[in-house]
Write a structure and sequence with these properties.
The complex is a heterodimer of chains A (about 120) and B (about 110). Chain A is mainly beta and about 120 residues long. Chain A contains no helices and eleven strands. In chain A, the strands form two sheets. In chain A, strands 2, 4, 5, 6, 9, 10 and 11 form a seven-stranded mixed β-sheet that branches. Chain A has a four-stranded antiparallel β-sheet with strand order 1-3-8-7, with no helix packed on it. Helix content of chain B is about 0%, strand content about 45%. The chains are: A mainly beta (about 120), B mainly beta (about 110).
Chain lengths: ~120, ~110
């Protein structure tokens, strides 16, 4: 139990569906992240939020739309996905994001949401 | 982008020390070395981090060379539950991590 909860754990959707992944953290952190892990590939950083503001979009296609209504919740809205988007989507949180000056705490990951696009 | 090089796989006998190497020859002066591990189909788990000095916690020890161009993660008494992919990452902030392919460690009974 890491204090980061992701739902749903498994999701199957068609290419024309709209669905959302949810992440909630109970750690009092202010930075939240979405990572994508495709089969046999390294984790790919997708989005970073710090105090509800997006600080990084790692060239992610617009069919993935993040939302961070507060520091405890992070969503990933999905629409018109492709089969190659099937992957494990991992949410993480940390104390806060600092551009310099040393670490502000490690990342705590959720268990992930396994997405299959048919 | 990942700035580290790790062997793709390693085996270790149960109960023995597992020594996982990492090369980070282009590390900057303000970058920390972090280690995470990922057990199959779970989220990565933080293990340890360091800047210059060797570090030890309840999970592992981290040995960083004097020139900081490489490091070794040591699991002193490996168990079957330590079978996982181990990631070595360098980061100035400890937040924006870019994971490489890591080392797949298999602990053998």
């Amino acid at each position: 139990e890491t204090g980061v909860t992701q739902t749903p754990r498994h999701l199957v959707m068609g290419m024309t569906n709209k669905k959302s992944l949810k992440c909630e953290q109970h750690l009092g952190h202010n930075a939240m992240y979405w990572y994508k892990q495709s089969a046999k590939k390294p984790l790919e950083l997708m989005f970073v939020y710090n105090f509800k503001e997006q600080t990084e979009n790692n060239s992610v296609p617009s069919r993935f739309s993040p939302e961070c209504p507060n520091s405890s919740h992070l969503f990933l809205h999905l629409h018109t996905l492709q089969p190659e988007d099937s992957a494990l989507y991992l949410c993480a949180s940390s104390l806060s994001l600092r551009l310099a000056g040393g670490p502000t705490g490690e990342l705590f990951f959720g268990e992930g949401s396994r997405l299959t696009v048919l | 982008d990942a700035k580290t090089t790790q062997p793709p796989s390693m085996d270790c006998a149960e109960g023995r020390a597992a020594n996982l190497p990492c090369n980070h020859s282009t590390i900057s002066g303000n970058e920390y070395v972090y280690w995470y591990r990922q057990i199959h189909s779970q989220g990565p788990q933080y293990i340890i981090h360091g800047l210059k000095n060797n570090e030890t916690n309840e999970m592992a020890s981290l040995i960083i060379t004097e020139d900081r161009k490489s490091s070794t993660l040591i699991l002193p008494h490996a168990t079957l539950r330590d079978t996982a992919v181990y990631y070595c990452i360098v980061s100035p902030t400890g937040n924006q991590f870019y994971f490489g392919t890591g080392t797949s460690l298999t602990v053998i009974p």
